[in-house]
Structure formats: structure tokens, C-alpha cells
Amino acid sequence: MRTIRLTKETQKDLLNSLLKRSPNNYAKYEFVVAEIIDKVREEGDAAIFSYTKKFDKWEMNADNIRVTEQEMEEAFAEAEPEFIEVMKRSAANIEAFHQKQLRNSWIDTKSDGTILGQRILPVSISGVYVPGGKAAYPSSLLMNVIPARVAGVRRIIMTTPAGADGKVNPGTLVAAKIAGVHEIYKVGGAQAIAAMAFGTESIPKVDKITGPGNIFVALAKKACFGYVSIDSIAGPSEILIIADETANPRYVAADLLSQAEHDELASAILITTSERLAEQVSGQIDVFLKELSRSKIIKASLEQYGYILLADSLEDAAAAANAIASEHLEILTKDPYYMMTKIENAGAIFLGEYSSEPLGDYYAGPNHILPTNGTAKFFSPLSVDDFMKKSSIIAYSREALEKAHRDIELFAEKEGLTAHANSIKVRFES
What we know:
The chain is an alpha/beta fold and 430 residues long. Helices cover 46% and strands 16% of the residues. The protein has a six-stranded parallel sheet with strand order 1-11-10-9-12-13, sandwiched between helices. Strands 6-5-4-7-8 form a five-stranded parallel sheet, sandwiched between helices. Helix 2 packs across helix 9. The protein starts with a strand and ends in a 5-residue tail after the last helix.
């Protein structure tokens, strides 16, 4: 990994480099995605069947588009019992964490007859997209579905591509059952997003779409936003570690590589005040690269977006971390809890040497669907709130409105909206 001194100039260059990974920079694919969406809107199932034959190489029809109970049973028979139990324990942790996010509707009343409040209800139907093939991640399925179920969503559907044999990854099906998915459709790509956004003869229109996918899926979610709610336009994975001289270089190197292995666009950054640690981490990375199965991907990631930044102080390190606003932030310093108070922008914060990032990916409970590409400055992890909608409640008595009617009329008249003012005035005509 390249080692550079942290300055205002190097920080600016780094930010510009990282932003190149944003899905917003893939406009050249938008025409293709728009064409797919339009065809699905116009032709419904027929378009889905056609795209499945073209991209996934199998004959889909109305009878085999949906995963059957028999296929679910076969998946459980094929899956390792030990892995099933691990997924169940992970799901229990995820559910327990998200149960604490639930909020209640509320009403506030006053003696003059004023009633104000907020009604909080789940969306009626949500859809989750799950990648297929080699990119099948049961952990992401649990993270996307369980908050929806905790929120009280009555109908949760899932789309995921099948292989050329028309079968879905068994681990994906087992995770779907554990998480609480109600219906599973064997559709992938931008066409799956369009189907959930607008509905077809077989696939219902949903209110919310969540879940990761390739660039075509990301752009389809972006194009359908407004017709349907989405979680986010996720960019490549990223990790930033703040470490001082007390950090274990082997742990730091291992954690950096845990994200670099995702894909060639993943980002892994260490900010440290210790030159000795920087040298040790760099050396340890070379050792790990000889052992890890995805070393080719890791090398490509580190060559493009891997950095060790030498900071003059931990305060400078925290300032740089806030500017980068990383998806995952690990703090491996003498007092990580104090350092946490200096952090304003991060998707998830991991404190101490036994809180490595994969703990959050798989098991701890907090959601691993996190803001990327600096969007942690204004976005949050996926949560129960994402599957809730809120309605304001307003009720005034004549007594309450009489106190305020002249203020409201003046406001409306100043905006030139005389019908607004009149709507209040008529209630106080003599």
C-alpha cells in the first residue's frame, strides 16, 4: 500500500479519487437501463421472460417464475445444518437490535381543544433485491428483510436471479425463510427492479425496494425512485481505520483486506500517527496476500484505492475521517471511546481491537446496509424507520382556531393566496 503524509492537498486528492467510484458516474449505462425499464412497464411478464432467457439462459414462464415450497424444502435439505443455525443466531441478533428502533404514534392535546400528533405505520409491501450466482450474500438478505418484518410490513417479496437450471442459490432461500420473506421470484437485474417498481402480471408493485446489486441494478433503483421508495444507491465497499502506536499491525492489515476483497473498486484506508505501525501494516499486508484466496482482487483494490495516511495528530486523523465519511470506521487507539466523540460522519463505528468490521457484517445486530461514497454525512444505516411512513394529525376546536385565525389569514394574504385566507375567514363570519 502506498504511504503518504496527510495534508490538506493529499486529503483533497484522495476525496476526488474516491468520488470517482460513485454510481453517479456511470451515465453511459443509463440508456440501457432506461430501455429495460420501459419495456417492463409496457410488456410486464413478457419482458421479464424475454430478459431472463437473454441474460440468465433459461426459459421462464408464469408457472415457474416463483419459488415453490418444494424448492424451499430442497434448499434446507441441501444447506449445512451448522450454517442454518449460525444464520438463525445472526437473525436473532439483528432482530433484537432493530426492535429497539421501533417508535410509537403519539397525540398531544391542549385544554383549548388543540390536538396534534403523528401516526406511524409500516408500508404495506416491500421488495428486496438479492444478487445471485457468485455474489450471493445471505447476510445482506437478513439485513434487508428483518427490519421490514420488525416494522410490521405485511407483505415482503424478494427477487433474485436463478442459474441456467432455473434454481436459486440454496443459501439464499434458507436465509429468506429465516428472515421472513413471503414470496420469492426468480428475476434478476434491472428488469427485477422495474417489475417491483411498476408491477407485472406475476410480480406485485411494492412501496419500497432495498438491497444491493450490480451497476445496472443500482441505476435501475435510481431511475425508479419517485415511483417507489428505495434504500440508497450503494457504491463500492470501504473501510477506514484510525490507529495509533498501540494498535496490533496484524489486526489492522487483516481488517483493511476484509473490505478490499469485495471488488476492485473497494477502498481501504489507514490513518495513523505512527510511522512504525504504517511500515508494519504494509509488511503484514504482503504476508496476507500470499495466503488469501481473493488476492488478485485485493491487489487491484489496493493499487487504486488503498492508502496509508500519516497524520501529525489523532485530531487531524479524526478531521480527515469526517471528511471521507467512510462506510465502515474502525478505531484502534489507546482510548477508542474518546476518539469516537470526535467522529461526526461514519456509517458504522467499530471500537477496539476485538470489534473488527466482519462482526458488523454478519453477527452483532446493527445493520450492515450503510451509506457509501461520503454519503454518511447525510444518510444513515438501513433501519426500521426506512419501512415506516408517518402522517401528521391536526385537530382544532373553534376556540383554538379563533386564537390563531388572524395570523393564518395574514400569512396567506402576504403570499397572495386569498382562497387560503378565505378558508379560515368563513369560519368566523358574523
